[in-house]
Amino acid sequence: MLTVKLKPKHRPFCFSVKGHVKMLRLALTVTSMTLFIIAQAPEPYIVVTGFEVTVTFFSIVLYILRLDRLIDCIFWPLLDIINSVVTAVFMIVISVLALIPETTTYIVIGGVFGLVASVFCIADGALIYRKLVFNPSGPYQKSAVHDKL
Question: How far is CA 130 from CA 8, 18, 25, in A?
Answer without folding.
Answer: 21, 12, 18
